[in-house]
Amino acid sequence: MANQQWGGRFAEGPSAIMEQINASVDFDKRLWHQDIKGSLAHSEMLAKMGIISQQDKMTIHEGLARIKTEIENDQFQFSRALEDIHMNIEARLADNIGEAGKRLHTGRSRNDQVATDFRLWVRDNIDAMILSTEHLMLTLAQRAEEYADTAMPGFTHLQSAQPVTFGHHLLAYVEMLSRDKGRLIDARNRLNESPLGAAALAGTSFPIDRQMTAKLLEFDRPMANSLDAVSDRDFALEYLSALSIMAMHLSRMAEEIVIWCSSPFSFIKLSDAYTTGSSIMPQKRNPDAAELVRAKIGRVSGALIGLLTVMKGLPLAYAKDMQEDKEQVFAATDTMMLCLAACSGMIGDLQANKENMRRWAGSGFSTATDLADWLVQKLQMPFRTAHHVTGQIVSLAEQKNLTLDQVSIEDMQKIEPKITQDIFSVLSVEASLASRVSEGGTAPSNVITQAQKWIKILQD
Ligand code: ARG
Description:
It is a single chain. With 460 residues, the chain is mainly α. It has helices at residues 16-22, 25-28, 32-48, 54-72, 85-97, 99-103, 110-146, 166-191, 210-216, 226-231, 234-261, 288-311, 325-349, 354-361, 368-379, 383-400, 409-415, 429-435, 444-459, and strands at 151-156, 159-165, 193-194, 221-222, 268-269, 351-352. It folds into three domains: 20-106, Fumarase C, Chain B, domain 1 (Orthogonal Bundle); 111-147 and 161-208 and 220-360, Up-down Bundle (Fumarase C, Chain A, domain 2); 363-459, Ribonucleotide Reductase Protein R1, domain 1 (Orthogonal Bundle), CATH 1.10.40.30. The chain has a two-stranded antiparallel ribbon with strand order 1-2. A two-stranded parallel ribbon has the order 3-4. α11 (234-261) runs antiparallel to α12 and α12 runs antiparallel to α13 (325-349). It is elongated. Arginine is lined by residues 24, 28, 84, 110-111, 114, 318, 320, 322-323.
């Protein structure tokens, strides 16, 4: 049987394979809510402009409300033969309300319809993504306040570098996530123009009011160029880029969780709720959730590259290739929502092993920079010279198997006679931490201020 929606010039229906490759309703049914919203706005405008009657509009609105209820209650029969969500809803409307339903598509094409629906969907999901991001940020900030003065080793090259606080480390991720949120907001602002009314590609001869539909759908304005409106998916790419960068941040955080809870480190313990066991090794507590968050960036950045590759080299305007946009965006969205929730759960529940972190914070001569800074500040030594002198003291400590604050004053004075007892005031982990009061530094006093600043922002 020829297609119900466009079968006028067709004698036969599509082959089963054609239907299989062409149909998108199995996945694009996720646009149903936005599709109905778009149709409500479009028909409202058609009636106001006298293109359809007020009576038809009312009938259409009633019919769409019925379809909404059917879908919500799982009573809607989605049909692959009707290809996509747009034609499923339109066909059902015509079945339900007859003639008026067949007038809905006046002055509209599926090309501007799908672009509108998809922008609305991405916009809605950016809003949800921002909420989940903020939830993770708040969780991190609350844990940072709790661990504001908990010492841990700070690393460069994954080698002990200088002591930092665990709170400071957690807040670093709050900063990253706040930029991720900023990128989502930017993407939202840029996508918020209405393609509706661009029709198939060239606009329409009907006296439509695009300002009105843009306003009804809470877009800032109609898109200026009808070809652009139906043929670009840069908004989806921008969203996927923002998600990919955020996924990279989460992946780094997840990797740190994996390292921190491995038994040689034992910096943290994850809760039972976010740990799995082993079927053979009874002692095991595996951080599977963290490992999976670490890995999921593959899907998200894969979606970005996938859609970039679809769009590359496509001539204007619409081409069916663009139907491949949705699954990438849906999958990346689902993945990121899950990863954000998993990170919030792990971070919210974890317990820091403070004693062990403190012990390792002082290992590896981690206060050597403090020693060098003391030489500069108290003896007016040029920093490069102080670096050299400190290197000699570290080497001596290493030979004698001592930490820096265990080296005797006599031994230090053999290397630099002007060193006084006062040097020991800067060699402890606590002194090192307390001294890092420069803006953005790790001093517990800074960390408390920063954590509380974020908590206040995020709770408002
Ligand atoms: N299902 C299609 C998509 O997602 C809708 C637009 C179809 N337009 C067309 N001219 N065939 O892109």
